[in-house]
Amino acid sequence: MTPQQFRLWRRTLGLKQKDAADRLGLKKRMIQYYEKGNRDGRPVEIPKSIRLACYALSKGIGDFDGQTTVPLPPETASEID
Fold first, then answer.
1. pTM of the predicted model, to two decimals?
2. How many CB atoms lie under 10 A from the CB of residue 51?
3. Is residue 81 pLDDT above 50, yes or no?
4. What is the C-alpha separation between 54 and 56, in angstroms, rounded?
């Protein structure tokens, strides 16, 4: 996932950087690094776990306990559609 794809993912879901950070369990600053593609001049790679979490959120999955998926709350899921 490139920085541009990450930004597009966030915008497609209608999320502000802070909202995306909250949903992914990150600090807003990490969202900014991912979207910029670097931190202090050094490349930043978006980890596989974050890429998978982005995919899950885009499919309306809010959590996974190892056996079953937990959907996003209704007010959140309607924002995605």
1. 0.82
2. 15
3. no
4. 5
